[in-house]
Amino acid sequence: MKKVLLSLAFVTTLMMVSCKQETNDQVGEATDAVGTEMGEAVDTAAAKVDAALDSTKVKISNTMKEGAEKMDDKADKMKEDAEK
User: Fold this and answer.
1) Rounded to whole angstroms, how far apart are CA atoms 6 and 80?
2) Whole-structure pTM over 0.85, yes or no?
3) What does the alpha-carbon distance between residue 26 and residue 32 come to, in Å, rounded to a whole number?
4) pLDDT per residue over 17-64, tens digit each?
């Protein structure tokens, strides 16, 4: 009887250890998957930020050109008025 109980205890211990290893493997895989998804999300966000910055640079450049043209026009008008 004692041998049977020890055998059952041994088998139970082996099952618990193997389940723990399987659980650890699953946790490891889940951690890797989350890490990969987070990396992809960061890359996507970085690409969107870069696109927004480029768009903003273009808009600022266009606005500055328009402002410079208006200043040139006003300067020309002031020269004409001064010559009169």
Assistant:
1) 110
2) no
3) 10
4) 666 667 767 767 888 887 888 888 889 999 999 999 999 999 999 999
